[in-house]
């Protein structure tokens, strides 16, 4: 996916989240481990959100165990760098042609 398409998906994701009471506090946080698309807070819980979109496949399957490992390392770095001691979870926001779905607290076994 191109960066431009990714930005459009992330803009949609932010609007979706804000309508549901999330406060966006960071976007596109990069580290040597990877990237966090959106960092948001709701009800005193920090949400690290991976945005995935797709037309001809199920976007959730793009979050592989390897990708999840990178996300977790980046989350830990973010918390350390920002000196945050907060409850948090890792979420996926899935954008398809006619729908947006937030999958909270994702894990890969």
Short description:
The protein is an alpha+beta fold and 109 residues long. 32% of the residues lie in helices and 36% in strands.
Please describe the topology of this protein.
Layout: H1 3-19, E1 23-30, E2 35-42, E3 45-53, H2 65-82, E4 88-96, E5 99-103
Parallel strand pairs: 3-4
Antiparallel strand pairs: 1-2, 2-3, 4-5
Observed structural traits:
109 residues; alpha+beta; Trna Endonuclease, Chain: A, domain 1; five-stranded mixed sheet; 36% strand; globular
Description of the molecule:
The chain has two helices and five strands; from the N terminus they run H-E-E-E-H-E-E. With 109 residues, the chain is of the alpha+beta class. It has a single domain, classed as Trna Endonuclease, Chain: A, domain 1 (3-Layer(aba) Sandwich). The chain has a five-stranded mixed β-sheet, sandwiched between helices. A hairpin with a 4-residue loop joins strand 1 and strand 2. The longest helix has 18 residues. It is globular, with a radius of gyration of 13 Å. The model has no long low-confidence stretch (mean pLDDT 91).
Amino-to-carboxy terminus distance: 26 Å
Structural domains: how many: 1
Order of helices and strands: HEEEHEE
CATH class: Alpha Beta
Specify the helix fraction band: 25-40%
* Rg, Å, rounded: 13 Å
Q: What is the molecular shape?
A: globular
Figure out the total of helices: 2
Biggest sheet layout? 5 strands, mixed
Number of strand elements: 5
Which band does the percent of strand residues land in? Answer: 35-45%
Structural class: alpha+beta
Stretches where pLDDT falls below 50 for ≥5 residues?
none
CATH architecture: 3-Layer(aba) Sandwich
CATH level 3 topology: Trna Endonuclease, Chain: A, domain 1
Strand numbers in spatial order across the main sheet: 1-2-3-4-5
Q: Can you give the mean pLDDT?
A: 91
